[in-house]
Amino acid sequence: MKKIFSGIQPTGDIHLGNYVGAIREWVHLTEEYDCIYCVVDYHAITVEYNIEELARRTIETAFVLIACGLSPEKCKIFVQSHVPEHTELTWIFNCITPIGELERMTQFKDKSRQHRANINMGLMGYPVLQAADILIYKADFVPVGEDQVQHVELSREVARKFNSRYGTIFPEPQVILSMAPRILGVDGQSKMSKTLNNYIGVLEDEKDVWEKLRTAVTDVNRVRRTDKGNPEVCNIYTIHRAFSENKMLLEIDRECRSAGIGCIDCKKMLFENVKKELTPIRERALALQKDTGYVIDVLKKGAQECGAIARKTMDEVRKATGIYIP
Ligand code: TRP
Predict the structure, then answer these.
(1) pLDDT of 11
(2) Residue nearest to atom 14 of ligand 1 (CA)
(3) Within this chain, do residues 64 and 105 fall inside the same structural domain, yes or no?
(4) Is residue 268 annotated as part of the catalytic site, yes or no?
(5) Domain check: are 116 and 133 in the same one?
(6) Got the DSSP string for 258-307?
(7) Which of these is catalytic: 138, 161, 191, 301?
């Protein structure tokens, strides 16, 4: 079976954007691939973060992944810092990665602009750690969104460079681009995000989800109920595309354009479908909350299994790079 690796940062509440764009697809991929999913806590400390909250958020992220259906029977789940070989391999990769390449990364440029007071080595080396995450398991495929494609490409270059210099150890991993529609926040303007507080959390209760949907921005040109709407520019329609079946989508498209239905009707239909999908997840999460020992065990087992693979790769790497092995 071909291998898949992907990672998610422990930045707190997992929202519909994360769910639709990543986690739900990760669940599907477990049916055809040997999948490893990682909560990447070392990536999270490359920018300002809350020291008191990092550990809790790390475990919470794992917890939501499991509730969403990434059961340990189907894949491996672990925390990045629990397999220290990731950072060890990063060092080796640091020594073959040109600074110029890293300075060109879009995310590095964006984050440097956002965090002018703390442009640190870790921020610049972020994609090198990501390359190590992927390559230490010799992953064939990496499911990511558009914004991470450049980083996966860098990991291909790192693999190529390592292989040509030291002998072939690593495959060149390929992107599996998320096909999900890009969901905006409830403001209908910016990407759904925790920081912008425009998100709908995967574990939020039904009342809150409805309240957020009810007040969410739709097609701004549709002011009155009698105005004709344009689904193409409506974020609610985009979310429908992620949760509703084709038949309903066609109906909404037609009825919205002819002012046959109002936005609130459309939102009610969406709410029903979102509920159908999220309710079992919330119920699983509640059950897991009563048994935190279970989640801790899953992560422990994941780290053990992944650690064994990672140590094997590191042995090969040490040998290839001429590091003294007693
Ligand atoms: N950089 C990714 C993100 O922010 C997270 C990540 C870390 C990752 N390591 C990875 C994704 C390895 C895929 C593979 O979304």
Answers:
(1) 82
(2) 6
(3) yes
(4) no
(5) yes
(6) TT-S-HHHHHHHHHHHHHHHHHHHHHHHHHHHTTHHHHHHHHHHHHHHHH
(7) 191
In this structure, the answer to whether residues 279 and 301 fall within a common structural domain is no
pLDDT, tens digit, 9 for 90 and up, residues 65-74 = 999 999 999 9
Give the C-alpha separation, 43 to 130, whole Å. 8
Residue 221 lies in a domain: yes
Ligand 1 midpoint to CA 145 (Å): 10
Q: Which residue range is the domain that position 229 belongs to? A: 206-286
Cα of 8 vs centre of ligand 1, distance in Å, is: 6
For residue 16, CA distances in Å to 19, 27, 174, 278 come to 5, 15, 25, 10
Amino acid at 242: A
Q: What is d(CA 225, CA 220) in angstroms, rounded to the nearest whole number?
A: 12
Residues 6+ apart with CB under 8 A from 197: none
Indicate whether 101 and 177 sit together in one domain.
Answer: yes
**Which pair of structure tokens corresponds to residue 147?**
């914004």
* Token pair listed for 70: 């990434």
Give the pTM.
0.95
Sign for the pseudo-dihedral over CA of 73, 76, 81, 85:
positive
Whether residues 159 and 296 share a domain: the answer is: yes
Specify the CATH number for the domain of residue 279: 1.10.240.10
Q: Give me the pLDDT at residue 10, please.
A: 95
* Residues of the chain under the 50 pLDDT cut: none
Residue 151 CA: which ligand 1 atom is closest? Answer: 1
Asked if 177 and 225 sit in the same domain, the reply is no
CATH number, position 79: 3.40.50.620
- Encode pLDDT of 237-287 as tens digits: 999 999 999 999 999 999 999 999 999 999 999 999 999 999 999 999 999
Whether residues 220 and 76 share a domain: the answer is: no
